[in-house]
Amino acid sequence: MVSFILGTTFLLLSSLLPHDSHGFAPSPSTRHVVGGHSSSIPTSSSQSKLTTHHMFTGIIEEMGEVISLETRDDMTLWDGSKGKGTEMVLKGDIVLDGAYLGCSISVNGVCLTATEIDEDAKTFKVGLAPETLRKTNLGTYVPESQQRVNMERASEIGGRNSGHFVQGHVDNVGTIMDQWIDENSLFFKIAFPYEFMRYVVPKGFIAIDGTSLTVCDVHSEGEDGENWFTFMLVEYTQTKIILPSKKVGDTVNVEVDVLGKYSEQAWEAFVPKMEALETKVKQLEARLQELEGGESTTSSSATDNDVNYGQPIGGLSNVAAAATAPTPEQVKVKNTDGTEWVRTKQSFFDTQY
């Protein structure tokens, strides 16, 4: 049954993800540049085709730099009024290849929207919503810290995925409890809130600061106990992401595998219906046993109009007496003591058994 639920979940995800390029706008041939003017960006025939960028893979493309982090109170909202908000300017190279206003770029595992792009300076601006600042560690990445960030462009659905489905929707922040070296591997131990630990499983996927990684060990003691998991970085990955530069006590953005969430939701919706069905079956079995007077037995010589069941109970003789003339749609049933009663004919049961 669990495999059925998981299979259904995968099919649901497949149906939600686009399988071709129809309905997606091509990357514009011009980009908005800080300062209010545009610069022409040459496009190849492949770039001019419709794209299907949608999610991320957790395979980091480059480590970028935080240029500025600013909170403003003069940001224009949809109705023309002014509001307060936080903006971050970042510097990158690879992630700007094919970028356009409104495109999604993963910054430390957070899916952010490019609102301004400066092609000459290789920078882009994103907005950080209050929910983003509450759930992630991006608010701590001030320029003075000289911390770098992991960056990845949105993936093309239908293309190769060397990681896993990463949404860029961080669940919460984890804290580095310990780190150690195991030959050429670098291990990390991460403390994580208990409410999310049910989605963390040994050898399962997890995204750490946007990096697709494999969980090694899991330890969960409940809300009042220790809750942590471990993962390791192979030699190649250690030089391509920001994690090795972090130390004990630092935080990481964590996104659990979304398939676990979908599976849990589907299972929770299914279980009450299954329990109700089991209850109904038990009630019907009890009622049938009551009518038949115990365990049912079927004679090997039973025919379409001569079926043997268990002993009758009080009241069943009245049913038999009222059924002396069954219709063509009914079947005369004989009990082991010779009494008879009538039930409606069931085509599949009566023809197959």
From TrEMBL:
Pathway(s) it belongs to: Cofactor biosynthesis; riboflavin biosynthesis; riboflavin from 2-hydroxy-3-oxobutyl phosphate and 5-amino-6-(D-ribitylamino)uracil: step 2/2
Signal peptide range in chain numbering: 1-23
Pfam families linked to this entry: Lum_binding
Keyword terms, alphabetized: Repeat, Riboflavin biosynthesis, Signal, Transferase
Residue spans of biased composition, Low complexity class: 38-48
GO terms of biological process kind: riboflavin biosynthetic process
Stretch list, region Disordered: 28-50, 291-310
Record's keyword annotation contains Membrane: no
Protein name as catalogued: Riboflavin synthase
Annotated organism of origin: Skeletonema marinoi
